[in-house]
Amino acid sequence: MDFYLGDVRYIEGLWRGVSEMRVGEKAKIRMKSKYAFGRPGEVDKLLFPKAYASGERRAKLTSKKVIYEVELV
Predict the structure, then answer these.
(1) Which one has a higher pLDDT value, 18 or 39?
(2) What is the pLDDT averaged over residues 13-33?
(3) Which residue from 1, 18, 21, 36 has the fewest beta carbons nearer than 10 Å?
(4) 73: which DSSP letter?
(5) Cα(54)–Cα(50) distance, rounded to whole angstroms?
(6) How far apart are CA 45 and CA 34, in angstroms?
(7) C-beta of residue 72 within 8 angstroms of C-beta of residue 29
(8) Which residues contact 33 (CB under 8 A, 6 or more apart)?
(9) Are residues 33 and 62 in contact, defined by beta-carbon separation less than 8 angstroms?
(10) Is the pTM of this model over 0.70?
(11) Domains in the chain: boundaries
């Protein structure tokens, strides 16, 4: 996936973690839900899979901690 650091459509914790990485490095980025999904008003700016676009499934998802496995290429 390509994204720009600081782009509010992507998870803040992800771009913060990636900004600390070097090319070729692999990492597990763990974050609390507030960094994974932003403040309440910002959740609507994020890109979600269609199955989680709205409703109860999305609310359940956004209350969880998140772990990403990332390789910077």
Answers:
(1) 18
(2) 88
(3) 1
(4) -
(5) 8
(6) 14
(7) no
(8) 62, 63, 64, 65, 66
(9) yes
(10) no
(11) 12-71
Residue 20 near residue 14 (C-beta atoms within 8 A): no
6 pLDDT band (50/70/90 cuts)? confident
Contact (Cβ atoms closer than 8 angstroms) between residue 30 and residue 11: no
pLDDT tens, residue by residue, 24-72: 999 999 988 777 776 666 666 777 777 777 778 878 877 888 888 989 8
Matching residue, tokens 């609310």: 59
Which residue type is seen at 21? M
H or E stretch at 67: strand 66-71
Query: What is the C-alpha separation between 25 and 59, in angstroms, rounded?
Result: 33
Q: What is the pLDDT of residue 12?
A: 74
